[in-house]
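=== RUN LOG ===
request id: a7f3
mode: sequence -> structure
chains: 1
length: 299
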Amino acid sequence: MGATLLCELGLFLLCTLLCTGNTQDAVLTIEPNWSSFFIGEFIVFKCDMNEGKDTDWKYIIKKDGQQFISYSDYKNHRLKCTITGHSGEYQCSGHRTSNSYTKNSNTVSITVLDKPRATLTAGTTIIPVGGSVTLTCSVQSSDGWKYEWFRRTQTTSELQIRDQQNRDIRVSQGGIYSCRGKRGNPVYYTDRSDDVTIEKTSDHPKAQITIDVRDIPVGGSVTLSCSVNSSSGWKYYWYRDVNSSEPLTTQDAVQMQMQFPSEGQITVSQEGLYRCRGGRGHPVYYTEYSDPLIIDENV
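=== RESULT ===
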C-alpha cells in the first residue's frame, strides 16, 4: 500500500510539472510606476507569466475582481485615464489554451484624480538690491514632475524661462511669474498656477529728514523726524556731523540734552548738522543717508 501511494504521488507531481512547467507566480507591473494618476494620463499594464513563451498565453486585465480588458494576445496594454472611476485594484490573468491552465498575478492599486493645478509660492515678493528670491512650484499628491516657468511684465509679453525645469528657482528680476508641471510620455501638463508678482528694489531707498522749525529758540529745542516712504519696518539711526559714521546713542543724548520721543524722532537743543537713515532685517539693511540738515541756535 505504501508503494502504491508513493507511485500515485510521483505521477501527480510529474503531471503537475508537465502541465504547468515553472510554477512561479505571474507578475503585473505598471509604467510609469506611480500610485496616483490624473485624468488624461496613460498607464501601461505589463503582465508577465514567468512561464513558457509570451505567445503561449492569452491575457486579461481585471479591475476590482471583474473583467476590465478582454482576452488579448499581447502582454502589454495601454490605458488612457478618462474618469476618476478608473481608480481601483488591478490584476492580470494568463490563460494557456494548450492545457486550459490559468495563472493570476499580484494586484496593483491605482488612484485617478481630476486634473491638478500647480501651486507657486515665493519666499518673499521683494528682491533686495543685488539679491534674489526663491520661487517654488509644486503639484500636490503626486511625483515625477518637471516644471515649466513663465515670466511677463506689465509692458512685455510672456516668455518661458527656458533654462529652468526644477521645482525651485532663484530669480533676480522683477515681474509676474507662473508655472506648471509636466510628466510622462506623451507629456502631460497640469493647469497653470496663479500668478505671483515679484518686485525689485531699482536702488537703496533714501531716508528723509524733516523739522518743525528751523531755528532753536532760546532755551528751547526742535524736533527732527526721519522717514522712509517706500515701505515699513524700519528702525532709525541719527548722526551729528557729516563725517560721523557712528549713530547717536542714548548716552550721547544725555550729554547733549537730546531726547528720542518716539521711533523716527529726535529732540535737539544744540545747533549743528544732523542726518539720519533707516535700517531693518538681519543682517541689517540700511537706506541711504538723508540729506544733511543744519540747525541754528537763536542768540
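=== NOTES ===
The helical segments are 2-20, 250-255.
The chain has a mean pLDDT of 85.
=== END ===
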